[in-house]
Design goal:
This protein is mainly α and about 150 residues long. Helices cover about 70% and strands about 5% of the residues. The protein is built from 4 helices and 2 strands. It has a two-stranded antiparallel sheet with strand order 1-2. Strand 1 and strand 2 form a beta hairpin. Helix 2 runs antiparallel to helix 3. The chain is rod-shaped. The two termini are about 45 Å apart.
């Protein structure tokens, strides 16, 4: 006898109770689908602040590196309320370019990563709904026929 099977139980009973023990992203019980969805979204929510903290730390590091570069290696530095302007010596333009690229990358990442987390949450919800519909059609196969009849008319 399979684990989780009681005498007289059917696969349908197991799918309703959620104790098959082998739910996957695309199959399993209604409870299993809910459990997978909850764990997936919880992991995204738990890792988002850490991810943003790392990106923020990278941005701070690149900003500090640029400030130090300007302070120690540039000439004619002008600081106003909005920006810092300076002349980069020609021999140091490659170094400046590398630091500027780090700063730009971290700035872009700080805008893109929150959006990608939202997209991931929507994707998890989509996967959950697909699995839920699959489980419900397995539990009530007559619904498949009813939906085909509705489309035909």
């Amino acid at each position: 006898m399979e684990p989780g099977h009681e005498p007289g139980s059917t696969n349908r009973d197991l799918l309703v109770r959620g104790d098959t023990g082998n739910e996957t992203q695309s199959g399993g019980s209604v409870e299993g689908q809910l459990r997978i969805f909850a764990k997936s979204t919880d992991s995204l929510i738990a890792t988002f602040p850490l991810t943003m903290w790392i990106v923020s730390a990278a941005h701070r590091g690149a900003s500090n590196e640029m400030r130090e570069f300007i302070r120690n290696k540039c000439t004619n530095v002008v600081i106003d309320a909005v920006q810092i302007r300076a002349e980069v010596p020609p021999l140091l333009s490659k170094e400046h370019s590398i630091i500027d690229r780090k700063l730009e990358r971290s700035s872009i990442a700080s805008k893109i990563i929150p959006r990608s987390f939202v997209v991931s949450l929507v994707s998890q919800y989509d996967s959950f709904l697909g699995g839920l519909i699959k489980s419900l059609f397995y539990l009530r196969p007559e619904l498949v026929n009813a939906s085909e009849i509705g489309r035909a008319s």
